[in-house]
Specification:
This protein is α/β, with parallel strands linked by helices. Helix content is 33%, strand content 18%. The strands form 6 sheets. Strands 3-2-1-4-20 form a 5-stranded parallel sheet. The two termini are 32 Å apart. Bound molecules: flavin-adenine dinucleotide. Flavin-adenine dinucleotide binds next to helix 10, helix 14, helix 16, helix 17 and helix 18.
Length: 478
Amino acid sequence: MQAVPSEFLTIDRKERANMPFRDLSLRAVEERICDFDDVVISFDEQRARVEASRCIHCPDPAPCMVACPTHNDIPSAMWLIEQGRYKDAAEIYHKTSSLPEICGRVCPHEQLCQGSCVLNKHHQPVLTGQLEVFALDWERTHQPYTVKQAAPSGKKVAVVGAGPAGLACAHIVLQRGHQVTVFDAKPAPGGLMVYGIPNFKLPKEDVFAKWSDLEAAGAKFVGNTYIGKDKTIDQLFAEGFEAIFVGVGTGIDAKMEVPGEDLPGVYEATDFLIRGNVEDQCLPADKKERPQLGKRVAVIGGGDTASDCLRTALRIGAEEVICLYRRTEKEMPGGKKDRQMAKDEGAQYRFLTQPVKFIAGPDGRLAAVECIEMKLGEPDAKGRRKPVPVEGSNFSIAIDTAIKALGYWPDPIISKTTPNLETHDWGLITLTDKKTGATSRPGVFAGGDGVTGPDLVVTAMVAGRKAGEAIDQYLRSR
Ligand SMILES: Cc1cc2nc3c(=O)[nH]c(=O)nc-3n(C[C@H](O)[C@H](O)[C@H](O)COP(=O)(O)OP(=O)(O)OC[C@H]3O[C@@H](n4cnc5c(N)ncnc54)[C@H](O)[C@@H]3O)c2cc1C
């Protein structure tokens, strides 16, 4: 429900709907490809208030609220920003979101809140994502947020995986008065928000600032701890944790299964992004060496990860960067906004192209990729037309680095080492109750990519919050 009901606002909707639109301001390409700093220029107060005043305040429930996976009360936040009540606007987001400053930056807004803005019919949508960032950044600088906590329950909860699902679950569990310890295989918290999404989309300081909010409320982080190997879920129960949330994502890069895949110069996307983007102090011990990038780089795949790899390669010195994708641009799963930025920054694209072999040069390193041309055939089960090889169309492209951005699989270690934890689809954790995140193992809850397969920060965060509430109920009913 909207906190600021639209029927009480005396506004001229027509006038608002015709206000001029000014798109996001981005740093100039030649400047931004020399560093990893945020590409988007933040709104100042005046710009934020003008943009927020373009909201025509649709009746409750507004389409933007419905489209937002966490149902942020966007119209009320827009009204409060317009009035200069930035702290109150930030509070609106905290009611429904555990990571508003992060979702404001990385959500595919054009498909969610902004995509459903009624202004799209004749004009341009309100830039709700950037306004969310504005309110939360203002709050952090002027009146920082603190996690409000219920009286201590004396109960301990373990969260396995410090990605958006795990951090959101920890946030709710802390609010309900329980103690939380977050375990992660990586040295620092954040999951893919730190060890995947590059700084130029999401500055890592935002993720660490979020963690420090949780830490100030008593959350403990235990890094470099691989659950299933260093200790098991059963051991966590034996240590006195009464409920466990598993938010381990899908950490295994998909393979291509083609000759030459293991040649020096061929990278998996996650490995490349971690080595290329993460600061030294947060790097896992086995990933300290920076990528050895050549001049000509090919990125294979069509999702957001591919866009991030293209843009990272351009920033660490590649001269020519090309994306090879087996379907056409229309079928690409990645967001248009990121792809356009990659194009603007100099990435080239070759569609209907499938690599079939990586070829070594005389020094044993990658020297070329052999590809075959594809054409689109019949639609598959999901309705996407299947790429079909064109016989005899093989050709080679000279490259010295290839990055495979083909998708992700779940790591089966937790399900293999946890009795009675059911899985499906090659290792994704099965929920016995989708509303609560309960699994087949009593006391174990799960959510995020490790349940759904690769998805979004916001959907993982929503799953973590739901499980956090369910864990609170579970602990209180014991
Ligand atoms: C390159 C890239 C770019 C992306 N860009 C966007 C974007 O722009 N917008 C967007 O919304 N989404 C984006 N995504 C998707 C988004 O990052 C994920 O959907 C989201 O992070 C999933 O959250 P999660 O908490 O389920 O898992 P993760 O973020 O993957 O976190 C899981 C955590 O669990 C830890 N872990 C795994 N196994 C164990 C274990 N056995 N023991 C202990 N710890 C373990 C991992 O180390 C990791 O820290 C991107 C993904 C990638 C790879």
